[in-house]
Structures are given as structure tokens and as C-alpha cells.
Specification:
The chain is of the alpha+beta class. Helices cover 34% and strands 15% of the residues. It has a five-stranded mixed β-sheet, with helices on both faces.
Amino acid sequence: MRRHRLTVNGEDHEVDAPDGEALLWVLREELGLTGPKYGCGVGVCGACVSLMDGRAVRPCVTAVEQAAGRRVTTVEGLSEDAGHPVQRAWLRLDVAQCGYCQPGQIMSTVALLAENPDPDDRDIDEALRDNVCRCGTYRRVREAVRLAARLARGEAG
């Protein structure tokens, strides 16, 4: 065991975990953040996507020590009242069915819009191609990404 200092959702934490422990387990088990989901455990489904220094990462394949000194943001860190443009778009368009993949979809969208505030369908499909949704809400996800981009630019109320 080793003590790791992490900044998660704007708060500093110290956690005891062995080097190599998946950041996902630290987020969920040590910090109680259940937004990032365990899906595949090998970084291919996107259910756990969170941000590290604003970039999308997969905590299931990111070692806890890789997060030291970096800013980690989970879906819980976006907004307490679902006021983030991406969250508002998801709610407005009723994107989620079962909802399991949605935190990862949302965080991938936040990362996309930070890099590209006006993505076209190809950009959206590329950015979210590795976020698997078993319910098949891809069409609504794409619509929500476009709406979130407009909300972020102040073009939609």
C-alpha cells in the first residue's frame, strides 16, 4: 500500500492503494463516486470515462499513480444541479434508457466540446465511437451533443 494524493472534482484526497490499482476502483470504492461505471475492465466500452486534466481517460486501465498531481473529473464533478450544458442537453432530449453508459458518454462529450465547440456528425461519431451503448441511443446521443454545443455557445435556451 502506498498513499496517493489525488485531486478529484476539485477536492484534494489522500488514499491508500497499491501502485497499479485501477483509478476506477479508487474513485468508486475509496471516494464513493459511482458515476464512472465498470463495464469491460479493459478500456474498450467507455462506461468509466472520466477526465484527467480535461482529456478523456478510462480509469479502468489508468493506474492510480498516473492521476497524482493531475485534475480528475468524474460526471459528479460537472454540476451539482445538472446545470452543465452537456447534462442539460441529455436531460432535455431524454437520452438515457438504462443509463449505464451515460456518464461515460457525457464525459466523452465534455472532452470533445472542450476541443471542438462546433463538432459535425463525423467529429461526434469519431469522439464517441468507443463508448458502447447496449440500448442503442446513439442517435439521441448525437442530437444531444449538437444541442450541448449550442447551449455552451449560448445559442439555445
